UniProtKB/TrEMBL annotation:
Protein name listed in UniProt: Helix-turn-helix transcriptional regulator
GO MF annotation: an example: DNA binding
CDD domains, sorted: HTH_XRE (cd00093)
Organism phylogeny: Bacteria, Bacillati, Bacillota, Bacilli, Bacillales
InterPro entries for this protein: Cro/C1-type_HTH (IPR001387), Lambda_DNA-bd_dom_sf (IPR010982)
SUPFAM superfamilies xrefs: lambda repressor-like DNA-binding domains
UniProt source species: Niallia endozanthoxylica
């Protein structure tokens, strides 16, 4: 029987001393938080996995959801695309002040975006909030509302 451990391929990487120091700080933080030692290798593997997940193309479900939001039949009424970030924050127990700190978006602008008062959200703002919420599925973040 082949386990996941058996199918791993060793890879040698070279890191800057400052990067290694940051990894050690993360390891120490996680060791205190989880009350057990967290090896640097595990942190590096997790970081690589998170990066790959973030950079992976959208799933078919997300692509379909975006297309259904953006492309309307000619006979349909005008609509606005709104976000559900506030509901996602509530589900995850995240406060607006934390999103403000994580994204650098001013509190007043963030409030308008979360309450769908500003219907012209920039891609930059969307991505900052989306990343601060740990990249929930796009289909969960957006919806159409007829005007």
């Amino acid at each position: 029987m082949i386990t996941d451990q058996d199918s791993r391929i060793p890879v040698t990487i070279y890191l800057k001393p400052s990067t290694v120091e940051q990894l050690k700080q993360i390891s120490h933080y996680l060791a205190v938080r989880e009350q057990q030692e967290v090896p640097l290798e595990r942190i590096i593997r997790a970081a690589i996995a998170d990066y790959i997940d973030m950079m992976a193309p959208l799933s078919d479900t997300d692509t379909t959801a975006l297309k259904s939001l953006l492309f309307e039949p000619n006979n349909e009424k005008p609509y606005a695309i709104k976000n559900r970030f506030k509901e996602i924050m509530k589900q995850k127990g995240i406060k607006a002040v934390q999103i403000h700190r994580d994204t650098g978006i001013s509190e007043s602008n963030l409030s308008q975006l979360l309450n769908n008062k500003n219907l012209n959200m920039t891609l930059d703002s969307f991505l900052r909030i989306w990343l601060a919420l740990d990249c929930p599925p796009i289909a969960d973040c957006l919806y159409r509302e007829n005007l």
